[in-house]
Structure formats: C-alpha cells, structure tokens
Amino acid sequence: xxxxxxxxxxKSGPIARGILAVGxxxxxVALPLLGATGAHAAEQSAPAVAQSAxxxxxxxxxxxxxxxxxxxxxxxxxxxxEKLYQDNREVIGGNPSLILPGMKLTLGAQAxxxxxxxxxxxxxxxxxxxxxxxKTETKAAPATASTSAAxxxxxxxxxxxxxTTPVANATVTTQYHASGSMWSSGYHTGSDFSxxxxxxxxxxxxxxxxxxxxxxxxxxxxxxxHADGMYSQYAHQSQLMVSAGQTVTGGQQIGLSGATxxxxxxxLHFEIRTTPSYGSDVDPIAYLRSHGVSI
Length: 295
Known about the structure:
The chain has 7 helices and 14 strands. It has 295 residues and is of the alpha+beta class. A hairpin with a 6-residue loop joins strand 1 (19-21) and strand 2 (28-30). Helix 2 crosses helix 3 (80-87). The N and C termini lie far apart (72 Å).
C-alpha cells in the first residue's frame, strides 16, 4: 500500500499512473498504481477473509457419551460450551444438556460481526490473532486447576470402598420423608443437598448409568444402577456429563447442579431406589451410611 505523502505526483503528464524515468543514466523508479485499483483491492479483502473464515468452520457428529463441555474442550472452542450451544441452538433445542447421538453441530461458527473485523489491515489481524491465542492460553490454566481440584476433592471425600456423598461439603437442606403438599406423593422422596448452580455432582458409588436426560418435575436427572441392585438418582441438574450405558466410579463427576424442573431454587435432589422408577425410594442417608459414608 502507498504511504500518503511519500511520493508526489505532478498535476499533469501522461506518466501519472505509469513508470517515471529519472536521471541521465536511464535509471527508473516504479511508482505504485494509484486510484481505483487500490480501492478495489481493499473492498475485496473483507469478503475474501470472511469467506475463508466460514470455510474454516467444521461439522461434528455427536456420539454416545458426548456433552457440550466435552466437545468444546476437545475442539478448543473459544467461548466454551456456551458459544457452542449458541451457534447450534436450532439443532439442539431449548435444553443444552440434551444432545443426542447423530446430531450434527457446527464448530467454530463466526459471529455476525466478523465480516467487519476481517476488513482490518493484515498487521492488525495478526496482532488480534496473537491476543486471541494469549487469551486462550490464559483460560486454559484455570480449567486445568479446576480439574485438579475436583480430583483432590474426590480423593478426600471418598472412603476406601469408593463411596462418597453426591456433592462435596454435603449439607442436607430437606430431609427424606419430610411431609408437605408440594410433593405429589405427600412426602419428600429423597434428600435435598445445598448446591449452587454449577456445583460438581458426582456418582456416590461405582455403577452403570441407566438413564440421563430430562424427566419432567425432576428436570435433568441421572440414574445409576449399583452392584447391589440399588439405584441412585440425581435431579435438577443444569448440565449432564454422562449418558446411558456408561460405567462410572464412585466420586466421578456426572454433571453440574442447577434448578431445572419443578424447583424453587438451585439444589441437588438425591434419591436411592430399589428400581429405576419413581415410588421405590428408600432412605438415601441411611443407604450412604451403610456404605461407610460419613454424613
């Protein structure tokens, strides 16, 4: 690109857009072509870069065991699972926790304002890319630290048999069999644990996930079958991180707490059942204690 004021053109003369010969020795100085050609190139640069960005977006086919946070982490989606969900809301629907095998998600979709950003000079674009890379690396450290913290919590809270509470620092806010008209059975069929939205929810013991999805008043729930034939249920979650058929260990993260379904606020509703179905509940605290969990 020409630098304004660097070269001056004469007001007249047939060589304003051509080659200017100077000096007796026949040396020549090539002047850049000015005017419409440069303007046209600048106008074309933004669509070209925007088209290239669109072509960089990929399509991913959901498989069993996938969840948005996992996909976003594996493919390094800037903005995490929230951005992935935003870009694919029409495909996923209103519940980001429910993605089904076979769904085709777009990875790396560009925001609507990306075309105007693409019109910046190449030097500015390179600088922006450098800042983006630095920002991504900065975000990676807390994520790693969080994973490490979760592992530490699991080790500290699990007993020698691999059984634990469904959330760390477990505090029961509503006891099993509490009575009240708010419950269709006339009593509380599980134990409620204090858990702000986003708290890690974990399997209380080793087993196999028999269902993971939305279940009416229970919202997003996971049900796990254990080796003794009993079932544990974890309801009202904001995000599920396991799928049916998956084997889990005691203390393994299965989701994040929330306030989905019929609730007055975020918490974890936890049940122990003799079958996977509603109405077969037993005292969940007594069951955990029978497995050596101190609560």
